[in-house]
Amino acid sequence: MNTIHVNINNIEIPTTADKTILDVCREHKIDIPTMCHLKGLSDVGACRLCIVEIEGMNKLQSACTTKVADHMIIQTNTDRIKKYRRITTELFFAERNHVCSVCVANGKCELQNLGYQVEMDHVRYPFLFPQCEVDTSHPWYVMDHNRCIMCTRCVRVCQEVEGAHNWDVMNRGHAVRIISDFNTPWGESTTCTSCGKCLHACPTGAIWPKAIVQGQLEKKPEIIEELIEKRKMHDGF
Amino acid sequence: MNRLDFHTKIAALQQLDKTKTVQHRIGICCGAGCISSGSEEILKKLESEVQQRGLSEKVEVIPTGCMGPCNHGPLLKHLDQHTIYQKVNCTNITSILQQHVIEQTLIEDQLLFSDSRTNAHADYRADPFFKKQCKIALRNCGKINPESIEAYLLQDGYKALDKALFEYTPEEIIGEIKHSRLRGRGGAGYPTGIKWETVYKYVNNEKYVICNGDEGDPGAFMDRSILEGDPFSVLEGITIAAYAVGASKGYAYIRGEYPLAIKRFESALKQARKWGLLGNQILGSSFHFDLEVRIGAGAFVCGEETALIASIEGKRGTPKPRPPFPAQSGLWGKPTLINNVETFAAIVPIVLKGGEWYSEIGTAKSAGTKVFALAGKVNYAGLIEVPMGTSLREIVFEIGGGMQNQASFKAAQTGGPSGGCIPIEFLDVKMDYESLLSLGSIMGSGGLIIMDEHSDMVDVARFFMEFCMDESCGKCVPCRVGTKMMHDLLQKICINKGTNKDLERLEELALYVKETSLCGLGASAPNPLLSTLRHFRSEYETRIHPSQDTVQDKNQSG
C-alpha cells in the first residue's frame, strides 16, 4: 500500500490509508483515551472520548472510526477536546453507581484510570443513582449493571470472537441495558458458553468472577487480541 | 408490457374518461385528519345517497388525499367547480348534494372559512390560504383517488418515467436534478443531484434506493400526507432515482404509526406491478426495479439514515459514524441512495418540466417549494406548500389567517426537536435553509408550530429535550447522558428551583452535546434549548430570580 502523510499535533507522520487515526496515534505513542475501543473488535465510535479535530471538517470525528487520508491535519489534544473529554468522563461517573472503594476492579479499572487521566477531581453534575440489577445467576460470573458504562465491548466480543451472541442491548436513552439472550437471567442463557471473554473485555468492574472481593479482579483484555491473531495464523495454514 | 402497449392503454384510458357522463366529481378528503373526524362514514353516506337518488351517472364520489385546511375538516370538494365545503357531516351532506349538486345553488354559510371570513370564496383557489401556495409535491393531493393508478395516470402519471427511460441517459437525469437545485427535504438540505451523482459514480452491480418515510418530528405530517394522498408520485420518483443511480432494488421505510400510508403505498406497489411499472424490464426497457415496504417500529432515531439502514438490515436501529456515507457503503455495505418522501415527490415534475423550471422557483440558494405542516395557534392550520423564501409573516398572517382569538404572535417553532424558535422580531424571515439556520433554527422536515403569548418558552425547551432524551438510542455518551442531564436541569428551572450555576452548566452541556454526539439526533437535540436561550433568555432568568411582580403576572395570566 502507498505511503501517505498525515500531520498529527504538528508532527508529520508517514503511514498507510488502511489505518484509522487511532491506529496511527497508538503506533506513535500519541495518547488518546478510549473506552469502547478494544483492539481486535469492530469499532463503534460510541464513547466519544477519542474525538479529534480534523482541518476542513466542521464536525469532531471519532479517531477509532475515521480512516486517515493523505495530507490530513489532525489535532488530538486541544483545549476544546480536553474539556469535552472531561465532561464525558464526568457523565460516565454520574450515569450509574460507581463506587471505586468497594469495587472488585479498584486499581485496575479503565474508567477509574480515565478519571485520573483527564484530571477529574469531582463530578459537577448530579448523580443519577438509577436502580440497577446485579445478576448473580451464572454459576461462575456476576454482571453488575451499576458499574456498566454501555461500551458494548462484551456484546461485540461475544458476537465477533466467541460467536455466541449471548449479550445484546435493550431499551433506549439512559434506560439502555445490556441483556443476556432475550433479557433473561445470565445463568439461564442458552447461548452463553461461559468462555469468560466478556469478563476480560469489560473495562470496569461490571463483569467479574465470583469468589473475589474488592480490588482482586485480574483482567487480561490483551488475550482477545492475541486470540484473533492466532486465529488469523491458523486460517493462513 | 412494452412502451407501445403502455401508450395504447393510456390512450384508451383517456378516451374512456372523455366519454364519461359524470358532471360532478365530488371529493371527500380521506387524509388522516379528516378521517379522524369521520370522513369515511361521510363518504359512505354520500355514496349511498347518490345511489339511492339514481345519480350515479352524473355524480362520482371520490375519496382523496389531504386537501390542506385540516382544522376545518371533514372537507368536501367539488373537483370540477373548485368549491370546498367545511365541517361536513352525515346530516348536512344530503343538503349539500341536494342544493349544490342538483339545484346548483351555493350554500354560503358552509363554504370553507365561511365562519371566519366575511367573503368566503366559492372558488377556493381565490382564497389567500391557497393563493399564496404553489403545489408541486402536493400537486395531486386532494385531487385524485390515491388508491387508483388510473386516476394517477390521467394526471400525466408515469409520463416522467417513460421519458426518463427512453429519452434520457442516467447522466442526463442526474444533470437535470442538479440543474433544478433541489435539496433534500428531510431536513439537512443536501443537494439531491450531487447525492445521486455520488451513488451513480460508485461502480457496483448491487445498489439500493431507500425512501425515508420515518417522519417523527412532533407536529409534522408532510410525508404522511404525501404518502396517503399521492403514493404513486413518490413511487414514480423512486423508480426514476433507481434508474438514474443504477439500483435494481429499493425499500420504502415507513413508520408503523402510519397504517394508512402503508396501506395506500402497498396498494400502489401492487397496481404498479400489474401495470408493469415495477419489476423486470419496465415498459420493455432493460431496466429492472422492485420495491419493498419496511415498517418502522416507532424509534425516532430510525429517521437518521445510518440507523434506518441498520433497521432495514434487521439490526437494532442505532446510527453509525459517517464517513463512510451511505452513498459509498450503505445497505449491506453497498452504495445506497437515501432520500426523503417529499424529495422523491418533487422528482416527477422536475423530469417533466425540466430542472430550469424548478430552479426558478424559490430563492438563490434554496430552489423550489417546501411543504409545511402548519400547526398551533393559527386560525387556518393544515398542510401547505409554499415557494422557498416565503416569509414567516405571509405564512402566519395570510395563509394561516392570523392568530387564534386575536392573541399575539410569540414564536414559530421550526424543525421539531432538532430546530428552534423564531421570535416576533424575525417575523419577516424568509423560509429557506440559510435564513433559518442564521437564526439558530433549521428548516427541518417542515414542522411549523405557531405559538402565542401564552406559551412558556422554557417549557417548550423542556418538552423537546424530554422528547430527545426518550428517543436517544443510548449508543453514545453525550446524547444518552447529556440529554438526560439537560432535561433535569430544565425541569429544575421550570419549577423555579434553578440557579445561575445551573444555567451555566446547561449552556456548557448544550455545546458539548451538539459538538460531540455521534449522529444528528444528539447534535441537534440542544437546538430548541439554544435558540430559546438566544431569543428568550429573559424567560430563563425570570425563573431563576423570581421577583414578586413576575409571580403575580403569571398568576394573572394563568
Properties at a glance:
heterodimer; A: 237 residues; Ubiquitin-like (UB roll); 2 domains; B: 558 residues; alpha/beta; Glutaredoxin; Rossmann fold; 4-stranded mixed β-sheet; globular
Can you walk through the features of this model?
The complex is a heterodimer of chains A (237) and B (558). Chain A is an alpha+beta fold and 237 residues long. Chain A contains six helices and ten strands; from the N terminus they run E-E-H-E-E-E-H-H-E-E-H-E-E-H-E-H. A five-stranded mixed sheet of chain A has the order 2-1-5-3-4, covered by helices on one side. A three-stranded antiparallel sheet of chain A has the order 6-7-10. A two-stranded antiparallel ribbon of chain A has the order 8-9. The two termini of chain A are 24 Å apart. The model of chain A has no long low-confidence stretch (mean pLDDT 95). With 558 residues, chain B is an alpha/beta fold. Chain B has four domains: 105 residues, Glutaredoxin; 210 residues, Rossmann fold (3-Layer(aba) Sandwich); 84 residues, Ubiquitin-like (UB roll) (Roll); 101 residues, NADH-ubiquinone oxidoreductase 51kDa subunit, iron-sulphur binding domain (de novo design (two linked rop proteins)). Helices cover 44% and strands 13% of the residues of chain B. Chain B has 24 helices and 13 strands. In chain B, the strands form three sheets. In chain B, strands 10-9-13-11-12 form a five-stranded mixed sheet. In chain B, strands 2-1-3-4 form a four-stranded mixed sheet, with helices on one face. In chain B, strand 9 and strand 10 form a beta hairpin. In chain B, helix 8 crosses helix 11 and helix 18 packs antiparallel against helix 19. The longest helix of chain B has 18 residues. Chain B is globular, with a radius of gyration of 24 Å. The termini of chain B are far apart. Chains A and B meet through strand 4 and helix 2 of A and helix 18, helix 19 and helix 20 of B.
